[in-house]
Amino acid sequence: MLIRGPASVLSFPAFRQRFPWIGGDLQTLRSALRGGPGVAPDATATIRMSFPSSDGSDDVLQGALNSPAHPRDKPLIVLIHGLTGSENSTHMIVAAQEFLSRGHAVLRLNQRGAGPSRATCQGHYHAGRSDDLAGVIGQLPEVLTRYGVCLLAVSLGGNMLLKFLAEYPRFSQVKAAVAVCPPISLKAAQLRIMARRNTIYHRHLLNRMKREIQGSELIKERADEFLRRLTTVFDFDDQVVAPGNGFADASDYYRRCSALDLLEAVDTPTLIIHPADDPWVPVDPLLARIQSGSPAPNLSVLVPAHGGHVGSHGRGSDVPWYIACAALFFDRA
Predict the structure, then answer these.
(1) Looking at domain 2-184+259-331, does it have CATH number 3.40.50.2300?
(2) Which residue has the higher pLDDT, 39 or 81?
């Protein structure tokens, strides 16, 4: 297991795969195959939170706030989902349950147009919407942020989180952040998901993306036939995401929104967790960057040999290993 940066002094537990979830593919699929628990049993009733955007669009992001049964003087945990996710994604529920049990209040944020945010947004999230996260953090009431805020994001949300940290260092209440399997080179991630060995993943993901965008302002009056003609995630990014968000094309979107070249500007204590066998998002761009010695001094990287894409189902615990590592990192922030 490769550990670089200030967090190397922490005693992260070793990751050992749990049978039968052996290998990156089964680690990745485990949550989808098995599902997850319901809302954490030790949480009080969910409080709905709304965060109006400041870009003149009238879009309003939605979040689900839960408080622990036994609160402690601990930071608020903000959870950020990945592509085609929402507050009800398995990884969001599992993480919320664990942090609530540790005495944290937890906010499960729905990105623009995702989950409950779909009813109050015309626009849609993408890998570079760091302004949205800045708006949410800025609107959090002091009663929630008095002990600070820690951010945990997965996959596409992880790239957006890293971009936010580089562009908005002024939020003193943000104490620490963890990004899990972030596609910090969007082009490399696009090529990986479209590789022949990922044909089934690619088809599944593209279908979910199309379903999620139906009725959105991004496709407006265009007919279903338009979506049927999009046969790759590149097509989707090039003909839906890019023109709908002011980018010239998919390549321009990838270039302007990838966090890879922004890592040097991340000043907040931050941990990137990215298993080497992730079948969806290649870890190579991250490894090349840390080996060059250029990332920021407060940025740490944890690269286990196994764990898949936002999987990390290990022996001895039903809590994914990356959540246990994030909890340890947040406790020391």
Answers:
(1) no
(2) 81
